Amino acid sequence: MTYKLPTKEQLQAVDLSWKRYLFPAIHKEGVKILVCMVIFFWVLALLWSGVWFIGIPVLVFSYYFFRNPDRYTPEGDNLIISPADGIVSNIKEMVPPKALGLGNEKLIRISIFMSVFSVHVNRAPVTGEVTHLEYVPGKLVSVADKDSEDNERQLIGMKTKNGEKIGFVQIAGLIARRIYCPLKIGDKLKAGEVFGMIRFGSRLDVFLPKGVVPKILLGQVAVAGETILAELKEKRK
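Below the sequence we write its predicted structure tokens.
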């Protein structure tokens, strides 16, 4: 693919101001929750005005938790992009869950751990069609260093226009069980497009197609919609 230099208009559209950091956009699910929280604290304030010493810090934290900043996805049909912000906590070979429709052979799984301070909005790792969905309820247990058989999770399988299959799993963590994923079988997604979110500490696993080599390192910080995890055409010999 030939790279084209950005135009003057594109350069001017890049926001480098302080507003980008202090007032990011937030996910629509966050708007609903923030409105309910404001009403809750306002009612409590009728009984005790000092509640705002607690309410304001909680509202500010919640605002930043639900932030949905602009992301700029690298172009390329063969790229697999990180679906989550966080630290690459594990890279291992394992048999994927049957619900993903990826077969019974071992595939490389990349795990990205999101702390409560990470952006929790999730984005599609590839452009393609949703082929498999399965929701599994679970318990309030840590997601940092285990295979998450007991956690609440949402399994998602996709197929690219080139026929490659990829699976990824939203996994809720220790503090809360709440996965938001409104996808349906047959939905079309573009790489980097927002498809859902997980609340308050969680993990997202990505199963690479057979033979695909990771381009990311253990301990590296991934950025949803921007960091390249792997490239489909680069396979192991």
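The CA atoms of residues 38 and 59 lie 8 Å apart.
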